[in-house]
Amino acid sequence: MSAAPQADTYPMAPLIRFTLVGLYLALAAPLPWLAPVPLQLPLWLALGLGLLLVWAITSEQVELDPDAIRVGHPAWCGWLLRRGWQAPWAAITAITPVATSQGGRVFYLRCGDQALLLPQRIARFPDFLERFQRQTGLDTSAIGRISPPWTYQLLAVLTGLMLLGELAWGLSGAFGISGV
């Protein structure tokens, strides 16, 4: 008896995930230090809770198995973030491109009267598209990422610079250094 084929899981692309988490930290982490003393503890707690929420939101993943495609979150946070969808391969009949207001394109999968958003921010995207095309028989050659990689690379660099600046500010305050 042969083993059943395994499902392939495609998490959010690491560059995108860690950039978004870093951006959250760059924007929110200074708040407890800048707040009046009575608000510092609630802000530290909110910062931790917010970080957990951002980590959960960016843990969305796509699972492909021989029967269907599923988009959702892992069990540890899926109970909280209930959005997601699944569709059997046979139900996917077309791919519809839609222009975004930022000049990009998103793609919707047509499943009867439903339109499901095709994930475009996942790791191993070319492999995902190849497997998707093999399972559905639909042409995926016109599908690309929602934004070019340089946009997230630039955002990652700017986020890193913000975090370094905040770290330098924090260290200068901790050691009583002025002029930084």
Summarize the helices and strands and which ones pair or pack:
Layout lengths: L7 E4 L2 H15 L1 H5 L2 H21 L3 E4 L3 E5 L2 H4 L6 E4 L5 E6 L5 E7 L2 E4 L7 H12 L12 H26 L6
Explained architecture:
- Helix content is 46%, strand content 19%.
- It is built from six helices and seven strands.
- Strands 1-2-3-4 form a four-stranded antiparallel sheet, with helices on one face. It has a three-stranded antiparallel sheet with strand order 5-6-7, with no helix packed on it.
**Strand neighbour order, sheet with most strands:** 1-2-3-4
Write down the domain tally: 1
From the N-terminal CA to the C-terminal CA, the straight-line distance is 68 Å
What is the β-strand count? Answer: 7
Number of helices: 6
Major pleated sheet:
4 strands, antiparallel
Helix content: 40-55%
Return Rg in Å. 21 Å
Which outline best applies? elongated
The class by helix and strand makeup works out as alpha+beta
Q: Which runs of at least 5 residues are low in confidence (pLDDT < 50)?
A: none
Mean pLDDT: 90
One letter per element, helices H and strands E, the order comes to EHHHEEHEEEEHH
